[in-house]
Amino acid sequence: MKLKSSVLGVLAGIATGALLGVLFAPDKGSKTRKKIKTKTSEAKENLKHEFDSFLDSVSKKYESVIEKGEEILEKGKKEAKEKVNSK
Fold it and tell me: Beta strands of the chain (E only): which ranges?
């Protein structure tokens, strides 16, 4: 959760800085609108990429937890069978 918040905060800061830079630049309105559109598209793509990376990371961690849980379950079953058979 902390990683997600940090990534979103950084991306929001970058987008805000880019937008303010474009708005205060001494260009014509049409050029400014084009720059805003371009910067917005870039920010959207960056956000999508970062979110995809975040999802991949979470997915890998989830799979790892499932694998370890299955290993522990199998080990527990084996130990239980051994104790039952030894009595």
Answer: none
